Amino acid sequence: MRSDIKIVDVRAVRLTVPERAPPPARRPSWGGAEVANPMSRYPRLKRHRSLWYARWGPVGCKVTAEDGTWGLGLTTHGRPVAAVIDDHFAPHLVGEPCLATERCWDLMARMARQYGATGLAAYALSAVDLALWDLKGKLLGQPVYALLGGPAHDDLFCYATGNDTDWYVELGFAAAKLACPYGPADGARGLDANERLVAQAREVLGPDRELMLDCWMAFDVEYTVRLAERLRPYRLKWIEDYLLPEDLDGFAAVRQRLPWQTLAAGEHWQLPEAFAFAAGHRLVDLLQPDIQWCGGLTAAQKIVHAAEAAGLQTILHGGSNTPYGQHLTYASPSMPWIEVSGFKTAPGVPLTELGRLPGTPLPVNGRLRPSDAPGFGLEIEEAWLEPFFA
Ligand SMILES: [Mg+2]
Question: Which CATH architecture describes the domain 7-141?
């Protein structure tokens, strides 16, 4: 292969993976339960996040090289993200060297500043960047983790997110994270209910497994402090994502008022700058970028290195759910754990039915190793892809 092999096509795509019906569950999953969120103050929208989610769905990016080799990156927020990829990024990337991931990332990240490189543009950037890394691995015949410096761990410690804690223990996870059901809109009774949920989970986990709490942008500074103080006896390893992501002064205030509590955030921050600020000002102890949202692998690697230089660890949001996060975590000494979330299966249904993309290794007894296949090792047939805008 020539080292200057060029990109000939960049295209937003829809992916349709053949589905099969899961086996019967032992009981329904917790997934329909209420989760505190930024809209909880509006009774009409409070009961479930799906009541107000944008309905754009998933979107992919396929990047093709001169020799016909192609790579695939996946993200969410379909139509507007597909427009950024096809209308803006694609024409400027055709003719660029396939292996030049830093250069292509910089081109896109700078180009998008005119209308804002965070938000939906960062999702588009993520999909293209992940496709370029997949392509680079395929062209070089190497798994992406090998291109990032090789394995930094023997295997990856996985923690489970969701409120079926007993099931996660049965599956062999040694750490679990709850979704917090109630927030400021639910007053003192909500505080009591939150405490009951955490107490029950601690009981199920016992003293030797770790417990965390996800607050999904639902709180303000006062509520975060009150709840954390109530929950102190349950020894949470961390609480995360408790404020609206732009409220950086609020993060500083929580840090000051809860010096004893390990704090985590980042799934709703994008591009390295916000993370560099958070690390530099010690707003949190742990950074949690999402590799499919923050600007892709190139952005996530910059974030991991900035955090590491500041003495902080990074644990990707949803990191194990796709091979993308698995490869970066496997290659990064300062990424100690990886998250398993988005359980579409109910208790009793084996993890093989999780509905992950074909080629995505699954946790066994709470640990996993990424695929050794070239690129990210996705086993996606080209026939499953079609142009997003037909
Ligand atoms: Mg979270």
Answer: 2-Layer Sandwich (3.30)
